[in-house]
């Protein structure tokens, strides 16, 4: 097949971010012998910088053709300017297809959420006779309910009804629906119960990560200015966005709590975002057990996991996340998880004994969960071993090859 992956967001090789869903998916289709084109924006979401001037194309080593579509910039994640950017991207894509009628796809994979631009892609798929598959990576408008004033959140389905209807219309226009978790797939099924569906987790390259960790001999510790890990010490890591929804205050309060005072527990943070000043202030306190490593290269972060015992999945209440990407890293590294989320990750942690659950926003609950693991080495080792055993189920190649097989049944 000729397959188009349509997603304005993502990272190209060399852009210093971890491999993105669209990239892994495009590579999986190419491995299966399909001709793949990835359409993405010329405005890079994370850095807020343009990756090219106007339209351009490049061919990746995987054989995937990348078409970089011009759009408009924005400075805030939540803004009218971002909506305008998405719509401009989609309009420019549609116009380019219309101007080249001989250039057609057999299948289009549309990254969802696409509530602000998906109709252009639906129309494009219909105009060229392509099958359309929605890939539910995140769930809008559910996430918008989190930014509503608290008294209004109970009415989010009414207030955001036009956006829910728009998403449902896009999903019903698809020939297939894939979710990056069971929960996300279920959302798609509720909107379009007659459309075939599947699950394809984000995953991680388990073999590559473990090979890198096996060859690590302290180099990353020296590079980051960390001393050797002391015998009996437990390292707890948070890696990811330092945003408003990630319960940083609870982690810092737990680190200073009476439960963990005097115990050999060290907290490591890797990432960047609005709460960075909060971490830097905490790290400046003398005699503290908190270390901020900055925004790490993905390869260095993978190596750091070799020395970690507990990974944090710390989200505030009402988060819409189901299976955070960092969780796959924790599994591959054989790290226990302390988690606040509900949904699929909570079920997996409980059923496979992968770590402990805590109440979101409750620092004492978080400290108690860490204390339970750090104070019981046998329990901690069991959770780490269980994580390592479960990891191959979420290998990125296994998961994205499953996506391709599902898509092939829709031809």
From TrEMBL:
SUPFAM superfamilies: UDP-Glycosyltransferase/glycogen phosphorylase (SSF53756)
Protein's recorded name: Glycosyltransferase
Source lineage: Bacteria, Pseudomonadati, Pseudomonadota, Betaproteobacteria, Burkholderiales
UniProt KW Glycosyltransferase keyword: yes
Annotated EC: 2.4.1.-
A GO MF term: hexosyltransferase activity
Keyword annotations from UniProtKB, A to Z: Glycosyltransferase, Transferase
Domain of life, per lineage: Bacteria
InterPro entries the UniProt entry points to: Glycosyltransferase_grp1
């Amino acid at each position: 097949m000729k397959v188009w992956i349509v997603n304005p967001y993502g990272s190209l090789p060399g852009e210093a971010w971890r491999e993105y869903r669209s990239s892994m998916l495009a590579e999986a289709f190419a491995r299966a012998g399909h001709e793949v084109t990835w359409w993405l924006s010329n405005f890079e979401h994370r850095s807020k910088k343009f990756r090219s001037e106007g339209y351009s194309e490049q061919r990746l080593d995987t054989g995937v053709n990348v078409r970089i579509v011009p759009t408009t910039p924005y400075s805030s994640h939540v803004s009218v300017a971002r909506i305008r950017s998405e719509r401009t991207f989609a309009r420019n894509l549609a116009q380019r297809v219309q101007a080249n009628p001989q250039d057609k796809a057999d299948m289009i994979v549309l990254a969802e959420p696409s509530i602000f631009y998906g109709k252009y892609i639906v129309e494009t798929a219909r105009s060229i006779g392509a099958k359309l598959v929605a890939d539910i990576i995140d769930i809008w408008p559910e996430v918008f309910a989190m930014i509503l004033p608290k008294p209004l959140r109970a009415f989010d389905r009414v207030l955001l009804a036009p956006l829910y209807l728009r998403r449902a219309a896009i999903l019903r226009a698809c020939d297939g629906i894939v979710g990056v978790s069971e929960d996300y797939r279920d959302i798609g099924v509720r909107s379009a119960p007659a459309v075939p569906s599947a699950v394809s987790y984000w995953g991680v390259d388990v073999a590559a990560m473990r090979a890198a960790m096996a060859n690590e001999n302290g180099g990353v510790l020296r590079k980051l200015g960390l001393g050797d890990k002391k015998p009996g010490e437990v390292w707890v890591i948070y890696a990811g966005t330092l945003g408003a929804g990630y319960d940083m205050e609870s982690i810092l309060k737990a680190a200073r709590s009476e439960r963990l005072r005097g115990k050999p527990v060290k907290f490591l943070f890797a990432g960047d975002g609005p709460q960075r000043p909060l971490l830097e202030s905490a790290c400046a306190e003398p005699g503290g057990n908190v270390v901020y490593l900055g925004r790490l290269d993905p390869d260095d972060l993978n190596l750091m996991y070799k020395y970690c015992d507990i990974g944090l999945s710390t989200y505030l209440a009402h988060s819409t996340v189901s299976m955070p990407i960092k969780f796959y890293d924790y599994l591959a590294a054989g790290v226990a998880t302390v988690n606040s989320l509900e949904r699929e990750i909570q079920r997996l942690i409980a059923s496979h004994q992968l770590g402990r659950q805590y109440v979101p926003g409750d620092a004492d609950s978080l400290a108690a969960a860490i204390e339970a693991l750090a104070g019981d080495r046998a329990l901690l080792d069991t959770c780490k071993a269980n994580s390592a055993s479960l990891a191959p189920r979420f290998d990125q190649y296994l998961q994205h090859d499953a996506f391709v097989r599902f898509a092939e049944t829709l031809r």
